Amino acid sequence: MKVLVDLDRCEGFASCVLSAPDVFDLDERSGVAVLLVEEPPDAVLADVQDAVRSCPVRAISLA
């Protein structure tokens, strides 16, 4: 399963970083989410799903 971030929609909310810090970081200069791992291990999949649900602008998806 891959994590996708729509950088055009991302508005720099830190909810993804708070939900899944092993997968996301926030580029403070550009204000968008940065993927640390495109294909997260199963151990953090629940955290990634929480990040998808918590994104207020729906910039994160799973494929």
**Estimated helix fraction:** 10-25%
The Cα radius of gyration reads: 10 Å
Q: Strand order across the biggest sheet? A: 1-4
What string, H for helix and E for strand, traces the elements in order? EHEEHE
Q: Flag low-confidence runs.
A: none
Count the beta strands. Answer: 4
Distance between the termini: 6 Å
Percentage of residues in strands: 15-25%
Structural overview:
There is one protein chain. This protein is an alpha+beta fold and about 60 residues long. The protein is about 25% helix and about 20% strand. It is built from two helices and four strands, in the order E-H-E-E-H-E. The protein has helices spanning about 15-20, 45-55; strands spanning about 5, 25, 30-35, 60. The strands form two sheets. Strands 1-4 form a two-stranded antiparallel ribbon. The protein has a two-stranded antiparallel sheet with strand order 2-3. It starts with a strand and ends with a strand. About 20% of the residues are buried. The model has no long low-confidence stretch (mean pLDDT about 95).
Features:
63 residues; alpha+beta; two-stranded antiparallel sheet; two-stranded antiparallel ribbon; 2 helices
Give a short summary of the structure.
With 63 residues, the chain is α+β, with helices and mostly antiparallel strands.
